[in-house]
Amino acid sequence: MVCTLEELRCKDVINIVNGENLGRVDDLQMDANSATVTALILYGRPRFFGILGPRDNCIIDFRQIRLVGKDAILVS
To answer: Which residues, at least 6 apart from 42, have a Cβ–Cβ distance to it below 8 Å?
Structure first.
Protein backbone atom coordinates (compact mmCIF):
# COMPACT_ATOMS: atom_id res chain seq x y z
CA MET A 1 0.00 0.00 0.00
CA VAL A 2 1.29 3.43 -0.93
CA CYS A 3 0.21 6.38 1.24
CA THR A 4 1.04 10.04 1.17
CA LEU A 5 1.75 11.99 4.35
CA GLU A 6 -1.59 13.75 3.90
CA GLU A 7 -3.40 10.38 3.87
CA LEU A 8 -1.49 9.19 6.94
CA ARG A 9 -2.42 12.39 8.82
CA CYS A 10 -6.11 11.49 8.51
CA LYS A 11 -5.71 8.09 10.20
CA ASP A 12 -5.91 7.42 13.94
CA VAL A 13 -2.94 5.57 15.45
CA ILE A 14 -4.18 2.79 17.73
CA ASN A 15 -2.06 0.80 20.21
CA ILE A 16 -3.14 -2.86 19.79
CA VAL A 17 -1.80 -3.82 23.24
CA ASN A 18 -4.26 -1.68 25.23
CA GLY A 19 -6.57 -0.20 22.56
CA GLU A 20 -5.48 3.38 23.30
CA ASN A 21 -5.92 5.97 20.57
CA LEU A 22 -2.52 7.68 20.42
CA GLY A 23 -3.65 10.43 18.06
CA ARG A 24 -2.82 11.13 14.44
CA VAL A 25 0.44 11.22 12.52
CA ASP A 26 1.98 14.69 12.45
CA ASP A 27 5.33 14.02 10.82
CA LEU A 28 7.65 11.32 9.47
CA GLN A 29 11.24 10.52 10.35
CA MET A 30 13.34 9.50 7.35
CA ASP A 31 16.79 8.06 6.73
CA ALA A 32 18.37 10.42 4.20
CA ASN A 33 20.93 7.85 3.03
CA SER A 34 18.41 5.16 2.05
CA ALA A 35 15.38 7.45 1.52
CA THR A 36 13.18 5.25 3.71
CA VAL A 37 10.69 6.12 6.45
CA THR A 38 12.04 5.04 9.84
CA ALA A 39 9.35 6.32 12.22
CA LEU A 40 6.03 8.08 12.62
CA ILE A 41 5.96 11.15 14.87
CA LEU A 42 2.91 12.21 16.87
CA TYR A 43 3.40 15.61 18.50
CA GLY A 44 2.54 15.95 22.18
CA ARG A 45 -1.04 17.03 22.80
CA PRO A 46 -1.83 19.80 25.29
CA ARG A 47 -2.63 18.82 28.87
CA PHE A 48 -5.47 20.55 30.73
CA PHE A 49 -6.22 23.10 27.99
CA GLY A 50 -2.52 23.86 27.52
CA ILE A 51 -1.99 25.20 31.03
CA LEU A 52 0.23 22.26 32.04
CA GLY A 53 2.13 22.27 28.73
CA PRO A 54 2.22 19.57 26.09
CA ARG A 55 2.73 15.84 26.56
CA ASP A 56 5.94 14.33 25.19
CA ASN A 57 6.14 13.59 21.48
CA CYS A 58 5.43 9.97 20.58
CA ILE A 59 7.88 8.42 18.12
CA ILE A 60 6.72 5.10 16.69
CA ASP A 61 9.45 3.02 15.06
CA PHE A 62 8.60 1.61 11.64
CA ARG A 63 8.99 -1.96 13.00
CA GLN A 64 6.16 -1.32 15.50
CA ILE A 65 3.60 -0.71 12.76
CA ARG A 66 1.42 -3.81 12.38
CA LEU A 67 -1.21 -2.63 9.88
CA VAL A 68 -2.05 0.49 7.88
CA GLY A 69 -5.77 0.28 7.25
CA LYS A 70 -8.34 2.48 5.58
CA ASP A 71 -9.13 4.49 8.74
CA ALA A 72 -6.44 3.57 11.27
CA ILE A 73 -2.83 2.56 11.81
CA LEU A 74 -2.33 -0.30 14.28
CA VAL A 75 0.92 -0.32 16.28
CA SER A 76 2.32 -2.45 19.07
So the answer is: 13, 22, 23, 24, 25, 26, 57, 58, 59, 60
Residues 29/37, Cβ–Cβ less than 8 Å: yes
pLDDT digits (tens, 9 = 90+) for 54-69: 567 789 999 999 999 9
For 26-44, the pLDDT digits (tens) are: 888 999 999 888 999 988 7
pLDDT of residue 37: 87
Rounded to a whole number of angstroms, the CA Rg of the chain reads: 13
**Secondary structure E strands in the chain:** 12-15, 21-24, 27-31, 36-42, 58-61, 65-68, 72-75
Instruction: Report the C-alpha gap between 48 and 35 in whole angstroms.
Output: 38
**How far apart, in whole angstroms, are the C-alpha atoms of residue 48 and residue 58?**
18
